[in-house]
Amino acid sequence: MNILVINCGSSSLKFQLIDAQSEKLIAKGLCERIGIDGSRLVYTPAGGKKQITEAEMKDHTAAISLVLKALMDPETGAVKDLSEIGAVGHRIVHGGENFSKATLITEDVKKAIADCSDLAPLHNPANLIGIEACEALMPSVPMVAVFDTAFHQTMPEESYLYALPYHYYKDYRIRRYGFHGTSHEYVSSRAAAVLGKPIEELKIIVCHLGNGASISAVKYGKCVDTSMGLTPLEGLVMGTRSGDIDPAIVEFIANKEGKSVSEILRVLNKESGVYGVSDGFSSDFRDLEDAYEAGNENAKRAMEVFIHSVVKYIGAYTAEMNGVDAICFTAGVGENSPIIRDRILQHLTYMNITIDEVANHKRGEEIVISNPGPGPNVLVIPTNEELSIARQTYAIVAGEN
Ligand code: ADP
């Protein structure tokens, strides 16, 4: 069965068509600038050439209609007709406390996703638009929602509660939710497979280090803590997001600069992180790494602050789990930067970790990069959120039949 995986943003839409049995990618692509002038579809069949089509997309339904047309193109398409798409898996950012696993989309599920929109105002409404556009064009194809927050729903109360008046939790559900859950789940389960041990026996820390970055503690297969919170702003230092700060800073800046709370939040989301600490040099870790190597002080400062935040969370989660068996690196930076991994691991010699330099410089494979010894294993596991969404979608749809 072929599964169409959709990741829908407010003006963009990424897709992959995956054969659920062989787990092979059939085609992928994205629609950019939906509802804006200059919209275009980028479509790449597996093993084929990238095609770019400039076409008006007044809304997401128009965009998905173009995606389906490309997938069914007699010359370059991947399927003959709609009957070859068995199900659609939608990435949904926020499932609140309602969803601890993927679920078949019904009217009630859509309502529950809409009810979480105040928790993810940029994402959930866009995700819903994607669902409705697919339903309009593929009315008989089952749809499944896979939530970024679901994997973290196993966190115990002491991890997810903020020390605020309790009625904020009861009345408004203010708590830690965590994000990147599909990636944390996929990477922790692959790490167990690579180590050849049951996940139920392992304490794993997953460092998802991309533009957005989060870290999680996965004890015996269940998430027990994660660094992102009510929103994806909390936790690690990121590309442009501050991560953890003293909340009193908000009022302090408001008084100094006459800014509103929402203006300050924009600064915390868009102008902070390594971009902010490097004094606006770059939010891109490749640029920072190159400049760091060349001795640029702004880049060095930003990298040190980033590395410090990762090291601090690894220590905290090791303590929370009373030990750690495996530390995994994933996402853009985690998968591709031997230098940043090395700099982080240099702080963990107290754990008896030593790095296998040859393994640390390999790319694109699931690999143990620490030397055998008494300490935890360190692994690089390329994440694959789309494959995980396809698997979860298939499991639900196959279970329904
Ligand atoms: P997101 O999905 O959150 O946008 P990604 O997981 O794609 O982010 O990661 C993007 C980040 O990964 C960018 O900052 C990019 O510079 C960084 N990155 C990619 N390749 C490398 C590399 N070889 N060395 C260092 N950083 C890299």
Textual characterization of the structure:
This protein has about 400 residues and is α/β, with parallel strands linked by helices. The chain is built from 15 helices and 14 strands. The model has no long low-confidence stretch (mean pLDDT about 95). Adenosine-5'-diphosphate binds near residues 210, 239, 289, 331 and 333.
Summarize the structure.
By secondary structure, the protein is α/β, with parallel strands linked by helices. The protein has helices at 60-71, 107-115, 124-137, 157-160, 166-172, 181-195, 248-257, 261-270, 273-277, 285-293, 297-321, 331-336, 338-345, 357-360, 385-400, and strands at residues 2-8, 13-19, 25-32, 40-45, 51-54, 87-92, 103-104, 143-147, 203-209, 213-219, 222-226, 326-330, 367-368, 377-380. The longest helix is centred in the last third of the chain and has 25 residues, at 297-321.
